[in-house]
Amino acid sequence: MAKHYSKKFWALFVVVSVVLLLSLFIFLEWKRSGFASLQRFLGVVPVKEEIQTDMSTLLSIADALVDTNGETKTYLILFQNNMELRPGGGYIGSFGILKIKDGQALSLDVHDTVNFDGRIPDTVPAPYPMKETLGVSSLKLRDSNHSPDFATNAKAAEDFYHMGKGEEQFDGVIGVTTHVLESVLAVTGPVEVPGYEGSFGSENAVLDLEYQVEQKYYKEGISFGDRKSIMGELSAQILKKVKTLSLQDKYKLFQIILGDLHSKDIQVAFKDAALQAQIEKASWDGKVDTAWNQDYLFLVDSNANAFKSDLYVVRTYDYSVDLTEAEPRATLTVNYHHTAKEKSYLTKDYQAYARIYVQKGSYIEGIAPVSHQVVYGEEFGKKVAGTIVQVPLGTEKTLTYEYKLPKTIETGEGYDLKIQKQPGMKNDTKVNVTVKYKNGTTKKYQFNLERDTVLGTLTPQ
Q1: Half-sphere exposure of residue 19, counting CA atoms within 13 Å on the CB side?
Q2: How many CA atoms lie within 13 A of 455 on its CB side?
C-alpha cells in the first residue's frame, strides 16, 4: 500500500534538507580550510558585509546543529501556503516536528493542522474579521499567524500546539512558504516522477501538484486515499538531484536560499539567545522593526475566504510624500489587479483584510473608497488601520490612504523611509515612491519589493 503524505510534506522535507545540507557543507569547508577557502567558494573577495553576516549566521546555525553535545534538538516547522496569503506568510495547512542530534536528522513527523486543531479547545476568540469572512470564531493553530511579526506567530503556534496536548518542547520555530519549492526546482531543473505524466519544474510544480491531488487523480484511476502518494515520490526525486548538484549549482542554490531568507519566505526563531541574536542581525527573524524612527510603511493583507487567489493578484504601491508643508503629508495608493478571469477550484473573487502600519504619531485622515468599517489601533509601536477590500475576478481595485506624518520625522535632506515586506508576499509587487523635499526638489524611486527596503540604499530615477 502506498505511503500517504501530507500535500506539503515533500516541500517541507526538501527545504529542511537543503538548509541543513548547505549549512553543514559550509561548516565543514570552513573547519577544514579556514575562512580563506570559504571566500574562494563564494567567488567574492572581499566578501560584502551582508554576505559576511549571512555566512557567520549560517556557520553559527551549522555549528549548533552539528554539535548538540549528544542532546536531541526539536524544531517546529510551519508550512505556510502563500497562495492563500496570511499576515505571517500563508495559510498553515500542516506543521512538522524535526528532531536533530549531532548533525543527524533523526525524524520529521508532519501533521495536518485541520486534524490537529480538533484537539484545541475553543477558548481563544478569533480577531476581526475572521468570524465575518471565514466563519472562524475561535483561533487555532492553522490561523495562528495573524500577526505580521514572526516572533509573535512562533510563540502563538507553540502555545496552540501545547493547547492541543502536544508534548514536544521546541528549541526553535521555522516558517516556510511554497515559494521555496520553486527556488529549489529552479536550480535542480524539472523533476520527473515514475508513473506520472510530464515533469515538475519551478514554474509549474505548485499548480500541477494542486491539480494532480484535487482533480487529475480521479481521471487516472487513482483512489482518493492514494492521491497524495506522489508527494513522497517527488520528494525522493528532488533530493536525488540536490545531492548530485555541482559545486557551482550548490552555490547557486545557496544564494537562492539566502534570498528566500531575506524575502521572509523562510523565517526563523530559536530559543538559544546567542543564536537568535545572529538570526536578528541577518534579518532572518521576520520581525516588525520597532527600532526604526524615520518614515515607515508596512502593508499587510490577509486572504479572507478567497481560495488560493493570491496566486493571481498583482499589487502596486504608489507612495508620495510632501515635506514642504508645516505638517508633512503622505498619500499611499494600493492597486489590486485580479488577473484571473473566471472562477475555479483555485480562485474566485478576491477578498482580503488589508492593514497599513505607519509610524506612531501619524494621523490617518481617511481611506477611500471603503465598503466596510475601518478599524484603527496601535501595535508594535505603530499606528494601524485596516479594512476589508474586495476585488472581483478580472478587475482592479485601488485604495487610497491619506495621512499626516509625525513631527518627529526628519523633513530635510536626512529624510529616510523604510518599507517592510509582508512574509509570503510575491516579489513582483511594484513600488513607486515620490519625495518632495523641503527645498522644493523632488526625487522618484521605483523598485520591486523583494525584501525590507530602506530608501537611502536606493538610487533615485
Answers
A1: 28
A2: 26
pLDDT the model gives residue 222: 62
CA 356, CA 384: separation in Å to the nearest integer? 6
Please, how many CA atoms are within 13 Å of residue 316, restricted to the half-sphere of its CB? 9
Kindly tell me if the per-residue pLDDT of 46 is higher than 80: no
pLDDT for the residue 10: 40
Do 21 and 167 have their domain in common?
yes
E strand or H helix at 220, and its extent?
none
Please tell me the distance from the alpha carbon of residue 321 to that of residue 177, in angstroms, as a whole number: 33
Per-residue pLDDT at 216 = 61
163/441 Cα distance (integer angstroms): 57
Residue 289 lies in a domain: no
pTM of the complete model beyond 0.85: yes
> Based on the domain organization, do 145 and 177 belong to the same domain?
yes
DSSP letter for each residue of 130-184: HHHHH---B--GGG---SS-HHHHHHHHHHHHHHTT-----SEEEEEETHHHHHH
CA atoms of 302 and 306, how far apart (whole Å): 10
- 48-73 per-position pLDDT tens digit: 778 778 877 877 777 777 778 899 99
Could you tell me the three cell numbers for 201?
519544474
Which one is predicted more confidently, 339 or 195? 339
Cell representation of residue 242: 540536490
> Residue 395's pLDDT band (boundaries 50, 70, 90)?
very high
pLDDT at 180 over 90: no
Whether residues 125 and 216 share a domain: the answer is yes
Q: Rounded to whole angstroms, how far apart are CA atoms 321 and 317?
A: 13
Task: Give yes or no for a cis peptide into 369 (omega within 30° of 0).
Answer: yes
Measured distance CA(127)–CA(142) in Å, rounded = 14
For residue 411, what are the domain limits? 295-455
What does the mean pLDDT of the chain come to? 85
User: Do 229 and 332 share a domain, yes or no?
Assistant: no
Any idea how long the chain is?
461
Amino acid at site 61: I
C-alpha 460/C-alpha 433 separation (Å) is 9
Q: Look at residues 302, 304, 359, 372 and name the one whose alpha carbon lies nearest to residue 332.
A: 359
Residue at which a domain ends, from 281, 310, 331: 281
> Do 114 and 197 belong to one domain?
yes
